[in-house]
Amino acid sequence: MVTTISEGFRQFRTNLEITSLQESTTSSRQQNVRDTVAEDFEVLESFLTGSYRRNTMIAPLTTADIDVFIVLDPKYYTDQSQHALLSSVMTTLKKRYPKTPKIKPDGQAVTITFTDFKVDVVPGFYRTGGGFLIPDSHLKRWIPTDPKKHVDLWSASNKAHHGSLVPLIKMLKCWNREKGISSAPFIWRS
User: Fold this and answer.
1) What is the pLDDT of residues 20-77, one digit of tens each?
2) pTM for the predicted model, two decimal places
3) 86/41 Cα distance (integer angstroms)
4) Which domains does the chain have, with CATH numbers?
5) Quick check: helix, strand or coil at residue 125?
6) CB atoms within 10 A of CB 169
Protein backbone atom coordinates (compact mmCIF):
# COMPACT_ATOMS: atom_id res chain seq x y z
CA MET A 1 0.00 0.00 0.00
CA VAL A 2 1.28 3.42 -0.95
CA THR A 3 1.67 5.70 2.08
CA THR A 4 3.51 8.76 0.75
CA ILE A 5 3.21 11.08 -2.21
CA SER A 6 6.68 10.02 -3.44
CA GLU A 7 5.67 6.36 -3.29
CA GLY A 8 2.45 7.20 -5.11
CA PHE A 9 4.34 8.85 -7.95
CA ARG A 10 6.81 5.94 -8.12
CA GLN A 11 3.90 3.49 -8.37
CA PHE A 12 2.20 5.68 -10.99
CA ARG A 13 5.42 5.70 -13.07
CA THR A 14 5.71 1.91 -12.78
CA ASN A 15 2.11 1.41 -13.93
CA LEU A 16 2.82 3.39 -17.11
CA GLU A 17 5.73 1.21 -18.26
CA ILE A 18 5.21 -1.31 -21.02
CA THR A 19 6.13 -4.90 -20.20
CA SER A 20 9.17 -6.70 -21.56
CA LEU A 21 6.88 -8.91 -23.68
CA GLN A 22 5.25 -5.81 -25.16
CA GLU A 23 8.70 -4.31 -25.77
CA SER A 24 9.74 -7.47 -27.59
CA THR A 25 6.55 -7.44 -29.70
CA THR A 26 6.91 -3.77 -30.66
CA SER A 27 10.58 -4.23 -31.47
CA SER A 28 10.07 -7.18 -33.79
CA ARG A 29 6.99 -5.73 -35.45
CA GLN A 30 8.57 -2.35 -36.25
CA GLN A 31 11.58 -4.16 -37.71
CA ASN A 32 9.29 -6.31 -39.87
CA VAL A 33 7.54 -3.19 -41.13
CA ARG A 34 10.89 -1.60 -42.01
CA ASP A 35 12.01 -4.75 -43.83
CA THR A 36 8.73 -4.88 -45.74
CA VAL A 37 9.13 -1.34 -47.08
CA ALA A 38 12.72 -2.14 -48.07
CA GLU A 39 11.47 -5.02 -50.23
CA ASP A 40 9.74 -2.63 -52.67
CA PHE A 41 11.64 0.65 -52.16
CA GLU A 42 15.26 1.68 -52.12
CA VAL A 43 15.64 2.72 -48.50
CA LEU A 44 18.63 4.88 -47.62
CA GLU A 45 17.97 4.84 -43.89
CA SER A 46 15.22 3.96 -41.45
CA PHE A 47 14.87 4.80 -37.79
CA LEU A 48 12.40 5.08 -34.96
CA THR A 49 10.96 8.39 -33.91
CA GLY A 50 8.11 9.62 -31.74
CA SER A 51 7.28 8.49 -28.23
CA TYR A 52 8.79 5.02 -28.69
CA ARG A 53 12.18 6.51 -29.57
CA ARG A 54 11.97 9.20 -26.87
CA ASN A 55 10.98 6.58 -24.26
CA THR A 56 7.74 8.44 -23.51
CA MET A 57 5.35 5.74 -24.76
CA ILE A 58 2.96 4.63 -22.03
CA ALA A 59 0.84 1.60 -21.26
CA PRO A 60 -1.61 0.34 -22.22
CA LEU A 61 -0.07 -0.45 -25.56
CA THR A 62 -3.46 -0.35 -27.31
CA THR A 63 -3.36 3.45 -27.03
CA ALA A 64 0.18 3.68 -28.39
CA ASP A 65 1.74 3.99 -31.79
CA ILE A 66 5.22 3.23 -33.04
CA ASP A 67 6.60 5.81 -35.49
CA VAL A 68 8.93 4.44 -38.16
CA PHE A 69 10.71 6.97 -40.38
CA ILE A 70 11.85 5.63 -43.76
CA VAL A 71 14.28 7.72 -45.84
CA LEU A 72 13.83 6.85 -49.50
CA ASP A 73 16.01 7.28 -52.54
CA PRO A 74 15.26 10.64 -54.23
CA LYS A 75 14.03 8.85 -57.36
CA TYR A 76 10.66 8.47 -55.58
CA TYR A 77 10.34 12.22 -55.03
CA THR A 78 8.26 14.51 -57.22
CA ASP A 79 6.70 17.86 -56.35
CA GLN A 80 3.08 16.70 -56.51
CA SER A 81 3.17 13.05 -55.46
CA GLN A 82 2.52 13.15 -51.71
CA HIS A 83 -0.64 11.05 -51.85
CA ALA A 84 0.80 8.72 -54.50
CA LEU A 85 3.86 8.03 -52.35
CA LEU A 86 1.74 7.21 -49.31
CA SER A 87 -0.51 5.00 -51.46
CA SER A 88 2.52 3.11 -52.79
CA VAL A 89 3.81 2.50 -49.27
CA MET A 90 0.31 1.36 -48.26
CA THR A 91 0.20 -1.12 -51.16
CA THR A 92 3.55 -2.58 -50.09
CA LEU A 93 2.39 -2.97 -46.50
CA LYS A 94 -0.90 -4.58 -47.53
CA LYS A 95 1.05 -7.28 -49.37
CA ARG A 96 2.82 -8.22 -46.13
CA TYR A 97 -0.21 -7.76 -43.86
CA PRO A 98 -3.22 -8.79 -45.99
CA LYS A 99 -5.34 -9.74 -42.96
CA THR A 100 -4.69 -6.54 -41.04
CA PRO A 101 -8.02 -4.76 -41.28
CA LYS A 102 -6.86 -1.18 -41.36
CA ILE A 103 -3.86 0.07 -43.33
CA LYS A 104 -4.33 3.54 -44.75
CA PRO A 105 -2.63 6.83 -45.50
CA ASP A 106 -3.17 9.28 -42.66
CA GLY A 107 -1.81 12.76 -43.36
CA GLN A 108 1.97 12.36 -43.30
CA ALA A 109 2.13 8.61 -42.69
CA VAL A 110 0.65 5.25 -43.51
CA THR A 111 -1.00 3.89 -40.37
CA ILE A 112 -1.19 0.16 -39.75
CA THR A 113 -3.76 -0.61 -37.07
CA PHE A 114 -2.87 -3.94 -35.54
CA THR A 115 -5.06 -5.45 -32.83
CA ASP A 116 -2.62 -4.47 -30.07
CA PHE A 117 -1.13 -1.14 -31.28
CA LYS A 118 -0.55 1.05 -34.32
CA VAL A 119 2.53 1.59 -36.46
CA ASP A 120 2.87 4.86 -38.38
CA VAL A 121 5.22 4.62 -41.36
CA VAL A 122 6.52 8.03 -42.42
CA PRO A 123 8.31 8.05 -45.77
CA GLY A 124 10.66 10.94 -46.35
CA PHE A 125 13.67 12.26 -48.17
CA TYR A 126 16.91 13.92 -47.14
CA ARG A 127 16.56 17.70 -47.25
CA THR A 128 19.25 20.01 -48.59
CA GLY A 129 20.69 21.81 -45.59
CA GLY A 130 19.72 19.06 -43.13
CA GLY A 131 16.66 17.31 -41.88
CA PHE A 132 14.06 15.67 -44.05
CA LEU A 133 11.02 16.32 -46.22
CA ILE A 134 7.86 14.32 -45.54
CA PRO A 135 4.60 14.25 -47.50
CA ASP A 136 1.47 16.01 -46.32
CA SER A 137 -1.32 14.51 -48.39
CA HIS A 138 -3.95 16.84 -46.91
CA LEU A 139 -2.16 20.08 -47.79
CA LYS A 140 -0.52 18.55 -50.91
CA ARG A 141 2.96 19.74 -50.02
CA TRP A 142 6.23 18.58 -48.52
CA ILE A 143 6.91 19.44 -44.88
CA PRO A 144 10.44 20.00 -43.55
CA THR A 145 11.14 18.16 -40.31
CA ASP A 146 14.05 16.83 -38.30
CA PRO A 147 12.99 14.08 -35.89
CA LYS A 148 16.62 13.26 -35.07
CA LYS A 149 17.14 16.81 -33.82
CA HIS A 150 13.91 16.46 -31.86
CA VAL A 151 15.22 13.35 -30.09
CA ASP A 152 18.52 15.10 -29.33
CA LEU A 153 16.66 18.05 -27.78
CA TRP A 154 14.47 15.75 -25.67
CA SER A 155 17.49 13.75 -24.51
CA ALA A 156 19.42 16.88 -23.56
CA SER A 157 16.42 18.28 -21.68
CA ASN A 158 15.88 15.00 -19.84
CA LYS A 159 19.56 14.91 -18.89
CA ALA A 160 19.47 18.55 -17.73
CA HIS A 161 16.58 17.59 -15.44
CA HIS A 162 18.43 14.55 -14.03
CA GLY A 163 16.24 12.01 -15.85
CA SER A 164 12.97 13.31 -14.45
CA LEU A 165 11.53 14.91 -17.61
CA VAL A 166 10.66 11.63 -19.37
CA PRO A 167 8.72 10.22 -16.38
CA LEU A 168 6.91 13.55 -15.98
CA ILE A 169 5.90 13.53 -19.65
CA LYS A 170 4.60 9.97 -19.30
CA MET A 171 2.47 11.04 -16.35
CA LEU A 172 1.15 14.06 -18.24
CA LYS A 173 0.31 11.87 -21.25
CA CYS A 174 -1.65 9.54 -18.98
CA TRP A 175 -3.47 12.49 -17.39
CA ASN A 176 -4.35 13.85 -20.84
CA ARG A 177 -5.57 10.44 -21.99
CA GLU A 178 -7.77 10.04 -18.91
CA LYS A 179 -9.21 13.54 -19.41
CA GLY A 180 -9.86 12.89 -23.10
CA ILE A 181 -7.31 15.45 -24.24
CA SER A 182 -5.69 14.54 -27.52
CA SER A 183 -1.94 14.28 -27.47
CA ALA A 184 -1.80 14.38 -31.24
CA PRO A 185 1.74 14.40 -32.56
CA PHE A 186 3.23 17.59 -33.89
CA ILE A 187 5.86 18.01 -36.53
CA TRP A 188 9.20 19.35 -35.43
CA ARG A 189 9.89 22.03 -38.02
CA SER A 190 13.35 23.30 -38.68
Assistant:
1) 767 777 888 899 999 999 999 999 999 988 766 666 666 656 667 888 999 999 999 9
2) 0.79
3) 12
4) 5-178 (3.30.460.10)
5) strand
6) 19
